[in-house]
# Entry
Amino acid sequence: MRVENGDWIAADRKGLTICDATSAAFAQNPDFAKLDVVTFSRQKALGGEAAHGVLILSPRAVERLESFKPDRPLPKIFRLTKGGKLLEEVFEAATINTPSMICIEDAIDAMEWGKSLGGLKAMQARADANFKVLADWVAATPWVDFLAKNPANRSNTSVCFSIVDPAVTALDADKQAAFAKAIVARLDKAGVAYDIGAYKDAPSGLRIWAGSTVEASDLAALVPWLDFAFAEEKAALSVAA
# Structure
């Protein structure tokens, strides 16, 4: 899911707007004037090693940091101020502990890759093109639909689907979940796709990554396999019935 726009965020807001942009970074176009704290991790946005995050603060967020007095001790790793002032060195390559230089080179390599494609706009266009492959498939495929009913709220990166075939929706919730998991397991075993199940706490279904690091041709190669796996599992369902 994604929000349609930032128009609903007041320009004169008193609070801070916090945005977890891990999947959106470099694939969508956040309205940074409406965002005060933005976080993302580059393994989804650019590819590369996980566990390394980026934090972007607005002047309003900095003012909040410098004026707020915590009512409890904060671990050093969470401290962004000292003596009532922003620790600007945190944003200028200073580190608490020595990071792996390999991970730094990995980040540089990922950014150079993005630049070689044409930069931000090109990466956003890649995600949109990837989403279109999946959207065209959904439009032509009766057994599947987007989890997000409003097109404006559909993410172009972490694309979530519901299985809407009547033979499947007639099952109880546990059996619907088992059906979706069987499709995921079949394609995993075949070496076709990995980790395409729905989020743990989401309705049962499928979730396919379509961010800028994916090739549209790979998604085009995937969708016939999805149809194949569905047909196989539905046939097995009929036999069991």
About this structure: The chain has two domains: 18-117, 120-240. The CA atoms of residues 4 and 150 lie 10 Å apart. The beta strands are 18-20, 37-41, 53-57, 81-82, 85-86, 144-146, 158-163, 206-209. The longest helix spans residues 216-240.
